[in-house]
Amino acid sequence: MPDRGRPVVTAEPTGEMHVSVADVLAAQARLRRFLPPTPLHYAERFGTWLKLENLQRTGSYKVRGALNAMLAALERGDERPVICASAGNHAQGVAWASFRLGVQAITVMPHGAPDTKIAGVQHWGATVRQHGTSYDEAYAFACELAEHHGYRFLSAFDDPDVIAGQGTLGIELAPHAPDVVIVPIGGGGLASGVALALKSQGVRIIGAQVEGVDSMARAIKGDVREIAPVSTLADGVKVKIPGFLTRRLCASLLDDVVIVREAELRETLVRLALEEHVIAEGAGALALAAGRRVAGKRKCAVVSGGNIDATVLSTLLSEVRPRPPRKPRRRNGERLRSRATSPPPRTLKSDSPPISVTAVEETLW
């Protein structure tokens, strides 16, 4: 098994590809002048901190890996046009990065990709080609175009520079000392990068997948056969076969993978919008949905993206009726502090002056 602090993975069958903690730190140095850290939000009704990547430049964490990979290529002198296959968020990350860096970009997206994601790619000037009805069909077509025209193909997850870029999210979480971080998994790039950044610090890393769209969970157990993903609200994680590099990293670094039912995902997305005022896409709500089954004193779930079509969101808000959350329970420390600071009761006369009350905000981390 590779060293936990600096894991190295060999790819098949094209030679060696290495990705380590040092690569994540190098990515952080590249990205800090382009991408400010995204905020943390404490969702008290869920008892979980949220890393709000839905507030990222393109509405998704994917811009981290895309930008790092393109910056690293330019450092190596590779100025070829970039082509990628994506259900939407990686394409938007590539489009934004290409606009900032002056690199030509072509994105291949499957038919049926959310309109808001297609519009986001076009907004930044990248060329959009739609092909097939799934990510895997778009991937095969993008590889053909790359070989025919000499483009540089940029994987959405199975690339060392992309993984390292996604890992910068973990570096941003490290100062807050979570004991467990939950991440959604499609191809595994985000989970691999975050695990590289945090595992050596003793943080548990839990992956989240949707029932019937669980290729990574199966691959970790040794079943690497292609699956036929079922229809799901989490279109961003519909992958038939996870990456080879990410599969090795996830198998060695993840503590567990939680499988979420579609109904749980839909309810969590609606609760996020109504109770926490956070707009997430299906994959963006996946980690929080899995968090119900994860124990931890300082849990953090990654809200990976917020690019959801308005029509889909309005339908969910009208159809899904979430169960009311459990009533809050006062912590023992709060109860004792309240008793210690409370003045003895007294009877107020009608001419007594008004009492002023000062609210004190408590830091949860």
Walkthrough of the structure:
With 365 residues, the chain is α/β, with parallel strands linked by helices. It folds into two domains: 21-60 and 159-319, 3-Layer(aba) Sandwich (Rossmann fold); 62-153, Rossmann fold. It has helices at 21-31, 62-75, 89-101, 115-123, 135-149, 160-173, 189-198, 215-220, 244-253, 262-275, 286-291, 310-319, 332-341; strands at residues 40-43, 48-52, 82-85, 105-109, 127-130, 152-153, 180-184, 204-210, 256-260, 299-303. Strand 4 (105-109), helix 4 (115-123) and strand 5 form a beta-alpha-beta unit. Residues 1-15 and 354-365 have low confidence and may be disordered.
Per CATH, what is the topology of the largest domain?
A: Rossmann fold
Structural class: alpha/beta
Pattern of helices and strands:
HEEHEHEHEHEHEHEHHEHHEHH
Strand content: 5-15%
Query: What's the total helix number?
Result: 13
CATH C-level label of the largest domain: Alpha Beta
- Which architecture of the largest domain per CATH? 3-Layer(aba) Sandwich
Whole-number count of domains: 2
Query: What is the helix content?
Result: 25-40%
Dominant shape: globular
Low-confidence stretches: 1-15, 354-365
Mean pLDDT: 88
Organism: Stenotrophomonas capsici
EC number: 4.3.1.19
Pfam family, one: PALP
Protein name: Threonine dehydratase
